[in-house]
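Heat-inducible transcription repressor HrcA
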Amino acid sequence: MPSRPPKLSDRHQQVLSATVRHYVATAEPVSSKVLASEYDFSVSSATIRNAMGWLEKAGLLYQPHTSAGRVPSDSGYRIYVDRLMTPDLAFGPEIEQLLAQTLQNGSGSIEALLQGATQLLSTLSGYVALITRPRYPTRCLRHLQLVRVDSERVMLILVTDAYETRSVLLQLPVDGPATGAATGATIELADGELQMLSNYLNSKLRGRSLTDLATLDWGELDRDFQTSMELLRQVLVGLVQEQAAVPSPEIVVRGIAEVLRQPEFSELHQVQMLLHLLEEEQDRLWPLVFEVPRPDAPARRVTVRIGSENPLGPMQTCTLIAANYSCNDTPVGSVGIIGPTRMLYENAIALVETAADYLTEVLRVD
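Predicted C-alpha cells:
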C-alpha cells in the first residue's frame, strides 16, 4: 500500500515548487542560494536550505552528487503536479486554434489527421508524441458518394465514422440482353441520378455498421434503384472484408529525434530500450496510453505517470501523460506525450488534453 504523501507547510510548498520550476528550466541541480537570489521568498538562504533539507528527508528532493544542489524526485514531481502547479489558462485555447489551423479543421482522412496531430504535438512539446488509432466496437458508415468516371464506370467513395476512406471503381450494370445480342447495353445514369442515388443510400444506410451492410436485405430498398443494388452490395461486402484483413500499426509515434536532445537521454542503452518499446513492443505500451475507464473508478481527464509509477522498465526514467479521445461519448483512442520526468508539466498536460478534445470534436457523428 503506497505511503501517504507528507503534509507540507506553505514554505515547503513554495520551495518545492520553485525547485521544480528552476530545475525544469535549467536541467541543473538547484541550490538554496539560487532560490534565494531568483525567487522572492523574503527569507535567508539558510532558511531555504533548511526547508530543502526537510524536503529531502521527506523523499521529495535528492542530491545527485554530494556537493551538488538538489533535484526533484518522482514523489516531488507528483506533489507538484497534484497540488502545486498553476495551469496557464490561455495556453489551451492557443493550442486549440493552432491545431484547427494546421490540421484544417480535421478535413481529410483520419490517418492524415492523426499523423499531422502527432507531428504537431511533438514539435510543440519537444518530446515523443503518440496517438493511438481509434478502436471502434463497430465501424459505421458516415457518408458515401457516387462520382462519375466515364460513361461505363462510377467511383464509390465510402467514409466511416473513423474517417477511414475507401474508394472502389464500379462497372455500371447492363440492362438485360438486347434482342438477338449476347449482352445488353450499359445502363446510363446522369449525374443528377447518381446524386439522387447517393442521397438515397445515405438516408438509408448512414450510421449502420459495416457488418450490417454486409448482411443487409437489399430487397427492402426502393425499387427505383434496384438496377444498382446488387453491385453496391457486392462492393460493400468486399470493403468489409478488406478492412478486416488489413491491420495497421496501432500507435502513431513522432518526435524520437526531439527527445534525444534532452540531457536525460544521453545514455545509449536507455535510449535503445525506449526505442525498442516504441517501435517493437507497442502491445505493451498500449494499455498505459489508452486506459479504458472503469465504471467504479473516479473519472480522470488526464493520466500522468511519473518515473517509477510506470510499470515498464524503459519508461521508469520518463513521464507519460495521456488523455482519451472519444467518438460520441465512447472512448476510442488516446493522445500521449513521453518525455523526461524533468518536464514542463503545465504545458504538456494542456497540450495532451487540448489535442484529445480536438480529436473528440472532429470525430463527432451528429
